[in-house]
Amino acid sequence: MKLYVVRHCSTECSEKKIYCGSTDVPLSPRGEREAEILSAAAKNFAIDLVLSSPLLRARRTAEAVVGGRDIPILYDERLQERRFGDFEGTSCARPEGERCRYNFAVRYPGGESNLALAARVYALLGELKARYAEKTVCLVSHGSACRVIRTYFMDMTDEEFYAYSQPPASIEEYDL
Question: Are 104 and 111 in contact (CB under 8 A)?
Answer without folding.
Answer: no
